[in-house]
Description:
The chain has helices spanning 33-43, 57-66, 84-97, 117-128, 185-191, 213-226, 234-237, 257-261, 264-271, 275-279, 315-326, 340-349, 360-371, 388-393, 405-409, 423-435, 437-441, and strands spanning 7-12, 27-28, 31-32, 49-54, 69-72, 104-108, 134-141, 146-148, 154-156, 173-184, 199-203, 287-290, 302-303, 309-310, 331-335, 352-355, 378-382, 396-399, 413-414. With 443 residues, it is an alpha/beta fold. The chain has 3 domains: 3-203, Alpha-Beta Complex (Spore Coat Polysaccharide Biosynthesis Protein SpsA, Chain A), CATH 3.90.550.10; 213-278, no CATH class; 281-441, HAD superfamily/HAD-like (Rossmann fold, 3-Layer(aba) Sandwich). Strands 5-4-1-6-10-7-11 form a 7-stranded mixed sheet, sandwiched between helices.
Amino acid sequence: xxxxxxxxxxxxxxxxxxxxxxxxxxxxxxxxxxxxxxxxxxxxxxxxxxxxxxxxxxxxxxxxxxxxxxxxxxxxxxxxxxxxxxxxxxxxxxxxxxxxxxxxxxxxxxxxxxxxxxxxxxxxxxxxxxxxxxxxxxxxxxxxxxxxxxxxxxxxxxxxxxxxxxxxxxxxxxxxxxxxxxxxxxxxxxxxxxxxxxxxxxxxxxxxxxxxxxxxxxxxxxxxxxxxxxxxxxxxxxxxxxxxxxxxxxxxxxxxxxxxxxxxxxxxxxxxxxxxxxxxxxxxxxxxxxxxxxxxxxxxxxxxxxxxxxxxxxxxxxxxxxxxxxxxxxxxxxxxxxxxxxxxxxxxxxxxxxxxxxxxxxxxxxxxxxxxxxxxxxxxxxxxxxxxxxxxxxxxxxxxxxxxxxxxxxxxxxxxxxxxxxxxxxxxxxxxxxxxxxxxxxx
Length: 443
């Protein structure tokens, strides 16, 4: 295994499940759970390779479409009694048979739909840096815990019932979430289980694990709150739950009264970020760099009988580019494609074009240095896996509304508009609204 593949994520996802039928393929926010896990792993800069261990054909197809490598799990390791450790061990065995031995394995659970890539990166750094052999995700709790004693009477677990301190004065305890475990690979192979050596806790902001249909409905509601909304809806959403209707297909009015009683604002404060927080400081943007296919276009191409390719672009995007340039904000198109149509569109827009680029992050870094613009002050708009390096490099990563899940996960904000439908204009409006409020009025 190359030094660029030191850290491998393994996501066990068997076809059978207890409690929730087809759980790993069920959708949260319109994305299958296994694909959400893959996207989180791919968005983590420290993870070099993502593997899904499964016995299911449909799970394998979804995982591959999401950008993961699939390891087929044997039937003996796909039963309801088989441990997750056995699936991880089998995946490592497959790699070892190819002469590939990672230093660190990140064992992730597909049923934790809100795992953040930054939490993964922080935990990986503690293992690769030698601070810990194992780091697992947990939430801090100051709860008063009880258990039933021998005669059925309640007994305090972490407190003396005769003395009632303030909850915040309790010594914090940590509840394992199951979302991820970062393991020294050699230590895991040696011991055969996930806890060994120096064990560290990665305290995450919130925990959500799916075990029931009710959990799925709540997770889906939260995911819809996290999804971007048009700017005009932001003020309304802060007013309460009427501004963001619960997904009709996801809510059982009889079973979920507590969910319906909670305001959208409260849920969003717990599990998401307000749009205003995401975009605070956008006035610092000094340059905009975009992909071409899937951003200026809808990612489709027409081919005539002579093999000549053509694409469709949106005039609204062209006007957005013009407004940015008039505001003194340069726009650059950075594309993997070498097709002349990219250069032709760039010439029409009057912007610089860098095309035929395989390493977008490196090319972007060179352009920024030559232009004297800090990467932190660049907005990059992408849509797919080949944009991940650039998205991670800049201070303002954006994804179009129909982007690959990994691109969405790596972005600071996901636009409401899909590629080719005015996404560039939407980004221009967001920037100009803060950068130069009078510019938007010209349109």
